[in-house]
């Protein structure tokens, strides 16, 4: 593959030598055909490890047919500007052979420090036989003035990283609003009243407005390319004046997802040409192809004067909540723990469910109570927010004195301490900053008093991660492929990782970290479902393991043929008992994955055996659950696998407490000291709680 790529690069060098630039000059910067923005200013210094003949300077020459490549699957470019440049986005033209999904992470240089300025994004780069690059969708960054930018690219295939051109964009700010105007090409729709059409909500004119003609309404914006954002700002009015409700949805991969809190309240005035500018509404930080805004008033008609967005907002700065919307103490990921909870209606996760309601977490006392969140990977938390429940009692139940702490593995470290915080408002969070620069997995709020109510409660807690140093994230985009009795596992590069550890069914298989983005597993058994995993290794720690399920396909490798009865085609099946003829012993050896199998007339001290025509040495065996919802509960929990030496039964393997069964799934077990025996049997001591014991399939493997 690398030889092929080298030849392609050399061919490319010969072809591009005869092409002229596709750029047109505009002062010291240039526009590039088909790309937004302009090239970096004249005098920009660019560096990056390069494959011979593909210097880094090719990415800022305005020519789409010249390239930079580091000579491997990932690389870094650093651009230093002659003077600070104001920008809000970066567009990249890239080339790949073969086609590849590639991750891009951008950093900005300010006062000598590199800070991550975007959420790492994935872009698909196509192979083109004419060596025409793929002009990628623009990448939004935190709008600011920067002394330089760093581009980190990592491919998810055997392709070398290759960038043709980089341009810089600056977003337009609407008059009298701090948010950014949506890009040219954005369309907006919504049921409108008279001449107050939906496009007036995007014209950067606060004196014009969209009106639905009723007290409820919705506008839907579709972007020409995905936009990264974490807040939406709305300028609106209500006649008569009243408090209205907003919900915001984001479009990702064709699906509309709610990305704001359940209900956003905004008190609007009745001046149609001098509207109320609602405080920016936080949404889940991500790239969206569109947004949908739903407005609901009591008596006034829905009316919006203007809509803008923020790529990175936190009361004027950057605050991105990195805790997911929790639906239990452990889902979708991480772990919530508390010192106490008043009842099942006020569990800890409800302070992390991103719902601004009257529930949240309620403790049993008011003193020395705590609530914590544990991340899957260590994070540098540099800000947090606490919000009261959205009810009149919220302020009195909110914390008055507390400490924000991090767990270092042995003790809690206080990062922030607050006293006499009394000016709470229902459902309105307060934001607090930290000077923390260390990575921790677990953080908590330790509360030493509330504001006078009988109960202590917190409506919502959020945490913001430092962008000055990238997170130690787990590898993503795992792909498992079968190759005979082997399987290959590949994954996307984790930024800043020095290597990777690979796991098979929870056990690490490599002695030292591997450097590539793939690994092979050999000698796998057909029909068995394996858990393949990989973690990223960093200088001081290891990330959480990302896993994928993989089932080997192919014919059974058991020494037992496909049995049609207890004696046919060969060998002998015996058992302690059966429920009826449909659960006869040979059904566990018929190589059919259904809801039959062997079921004895009891759930303990039952056995199933097979005698081959000649003695065999078994090194492994498998047990498969039946294809029925009760399969996991009917499966063996405690058992012994035995071999018959002609006189006595010899214990070959003992298992206790095996309860993690899945319907119609095969588990593999290894015999530590195999030897030749004339007969083998599975002696089951107990099952997993059902009225029946059931074994779907039993395989004996040499």
UniProtKB/TrEMBL annotation:
SUPFAM superfamilies per the UniProt record, alphabetical: Fibronectin type III (SSF49265), Galactose-binding domain-like (SSF49785)
Keywords, alphabetical: Signal
InterPro entries per the UniProt record, alphabetical: FN3_sf, Galactose-bd-like_sf, Ig-like_fold
Xref: Gene3D superfamilies: Galactose-binding domain-like (2.60.120.260), Immunoglobulins (2.60.40.10)
UniProt signal peptide: 1-25
The protein's name in its UniProt record: Coagulation factor 5/8 type domain protein
Originating species: Paenibacillus curdlanolyticus YK9
């Amino acid at each position: 593959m690398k030889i092929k790529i080298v030849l392609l690069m050399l061919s490319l060098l010969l072809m591009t030598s005869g092409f002229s630039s596709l750029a047109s000059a505009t002062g010291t910067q240039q526009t590039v055909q088909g790309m937004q923005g302009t090239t970096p200013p004249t005098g920009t210094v660019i560096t990056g490890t390069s494959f011979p003949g593909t210097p880094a300077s090719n990415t800022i020459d305005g020519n789409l047919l010249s390239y930079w490549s580091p000579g491997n699957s990932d690389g870094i470019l650093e651009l230093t500007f002659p003077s600070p440049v104001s920008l809000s986005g970066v567009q990249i033209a890239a080339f790949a052979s073969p086609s590849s999904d590639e991750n891009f992470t951008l950093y900005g240089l300010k006062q000598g420090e590199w800070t991550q300025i975007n959420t790492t994004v994935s872009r698909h780069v196509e192979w083109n036989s004419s060596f025409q690059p793929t002009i990628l969708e623009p990448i939004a960054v935190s709008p600011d003035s920067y002394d330089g930018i760093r581009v980190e690219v990592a491919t998810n295939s055997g392709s070398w990283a290759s960038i043709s051109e980089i341009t810089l964009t600056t977003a337009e700010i609407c008059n009298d609003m701090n948010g950014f105007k949506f890009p040219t090409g954005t369309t907006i729709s919504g049921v409108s009243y008279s001449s107050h059409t939906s496009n007036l909500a995007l014209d950067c004119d606060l004196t014009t407005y969209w009106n639905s003609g009723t007290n409820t309404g919705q506008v839907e914006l579709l972007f020409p390319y995905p936009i990264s954002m974490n807040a939406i700002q709305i300028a609106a009015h209500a006649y008569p004046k009243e408090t209205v409700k907003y919900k915001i949805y984001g479009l990702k991969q064709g699906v509309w997802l709610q990305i704001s809190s359940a209900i956003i309240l905004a008190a609007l005035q009745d001046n149609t040409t001098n509207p109320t500018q609602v405080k920016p509404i936080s949404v889940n930080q991500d790239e969206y192809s569109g947004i949908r805004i739903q407005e609901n008033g009591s008596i006034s008609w829905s009316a919006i004067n203007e809509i803008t967005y923020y790529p990175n907002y936190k009361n004027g700065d950057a605050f991105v909540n990195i805790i997911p919307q929790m639906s239990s103490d452990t889902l979708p990921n991480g772990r919530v723990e508390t010192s106490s909870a008043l009842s099942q209606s006020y569990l800890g996760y409800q302070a992390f469910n991103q719902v601004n309601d009257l529930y949240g977490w309620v403790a049993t006392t008011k003193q020395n109570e705590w609530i914590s969140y544990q991340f899957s990977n260590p994070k540098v938390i540099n800000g947090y927010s606490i919000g009261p429940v959205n009810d009149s009692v919220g302020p009195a139940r909110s914390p008055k004195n507390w400490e924000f702490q991090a767990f270092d593995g042995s003790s809690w470290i206080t990062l922030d301490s607050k006293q006499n915080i009394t000016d709470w408002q229902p459902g309105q969070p307060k934001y607090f900053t930290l000077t923390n620069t260390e990575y921790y997995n677990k953080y908590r709020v330790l509360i030493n008093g509330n504001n006078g109510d009988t109960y202590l409660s917190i409506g919502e807690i959020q945490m913001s991660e430092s962008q000055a140093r990238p997170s130690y994230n787990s590898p993503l985009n795992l792909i498992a492929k079968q190759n005979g009795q082997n399987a290959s596992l590949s994954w996307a590069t984790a930024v800043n990782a020095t290597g990777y550890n690979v796991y098979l069914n929870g056990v690490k298989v490599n002695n030292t970290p591997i450097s590539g983005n793939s690994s092979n597993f050999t000698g796998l058994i057909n029909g068995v479902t394996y858990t393949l995993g990989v973690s990223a290794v960093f200088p001081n720690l290891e990330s959480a393991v990302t896993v994928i399920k993989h089932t080997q396909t192919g014919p059974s490798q058991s020494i037992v043929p496909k049995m049609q009865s207890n004696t046919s085609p060969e060998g002998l099946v015996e058992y302690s008992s059966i429920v009826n003829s449909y659960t006869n012993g040979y059904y566990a050896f018929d190589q059919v994955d259904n809801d039959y199998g062997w079921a004895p007339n009891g759930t303990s001290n039952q056995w199933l055996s097979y005698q081959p025509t000649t003695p065999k040495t078994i090194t492994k065996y498998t047990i498969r659950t039946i294809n029925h919802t009760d399969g996991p509960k009917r499966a063996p929990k405690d058992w012994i696998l035995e071999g018959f030496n002609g006189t006595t039964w010899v214990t070959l393997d003992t298992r206790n407490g095996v309860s993690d069964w899945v319907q119609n799934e095969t588990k593999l077990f290894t015999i530590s000291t195999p030897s030749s025996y004339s007969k083998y049997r599975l002696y089951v001591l107990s099952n997993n709680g059902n009225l029946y014991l059931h074994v779907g399939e039993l395989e004996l493997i040499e």
